[in-house]
Amino acid sequence: MKYKNWLNEWLALYVKPTTKIRTYKKYKRQIELHILPALGEFELQDLTATVLQRFTVDLSGKGLSANTVNGIISVLKSSLRRAVLLGVTDKEFTMAIVRPKGREKQVDCFSKEEQRKIEQFIFEKKKNKLFGVVLCLYTGLRIGEVLSLTWDDIDLQKGIIAVSKSCHDSWENGKYVKVIDTPKTDFSERIIPLPKQLLSRLREYKKSSSGNYVVCSERVHGAQVRSY
What we know:
By secondary structure, the chain is an alpha+beta fold.
C-alpha cells in the first residue's frame, strides 16, 4: 500500500473520530503540506530509516522551527505505528529518526510598570475588544479561553469565572468561522477567582456589551459560530 493511501485511512478512521476537530485539521494540513509531497508515493515497506531521516533533515533545511518539525514527525510516527499494529505493514523505522534539537526561547514578562501602562491604555481607549488582554493578565486564561467566554460563564456576584470551553478560528468555504470546542485538556476546566479591581470594570462593561460573548468585535458579530 502506498503511504498516501494509508494516511487517508488513518485520518478518517483513527484521527477524526478520536480527536478534537482542531487536531484533525492540524494533522491533515501537516500531511498535505509536508508529508504527502515528500513521502506520499512511497510504498509503506519502502519507508526505511534512511528515507525518514532524510525527510527530517530536509524539513529542518526549509527553515521550519524545531517545534514544527517535531509536530510533523509525531504525525509520521503515529501513522506508521498504527499501520504496524494493524498489520498493514510489518515494520516501521521511526525509532531511528534523530529529531532536530530545539532551542529554548527566553520568556520575557511584563514589569509592573509595563503592565500598568497597558491597562491604562486599554481603559482610556474604552474599546471593549481590548478588555480580553486585561483578563489574560489577571487570570492566566489562554487566548482561546478568553475569546470563548460568555457572560453566563462569569458570576459577578461571587466574583468567579467558570472555564469550560475554548475556541479557535477556521476558514471554511470562503467564510470566517469561530469554532467553540472543549478546553485544551481535561484539567483545563476550572473556576478562577476574579480580582476585586476588575469586578466593577466588568459590571460596567457588561452594561455596554451588545453580545453574549465577553470579548467581541464587529467581525465576530457577523461571523458564523460553530460548536463541537
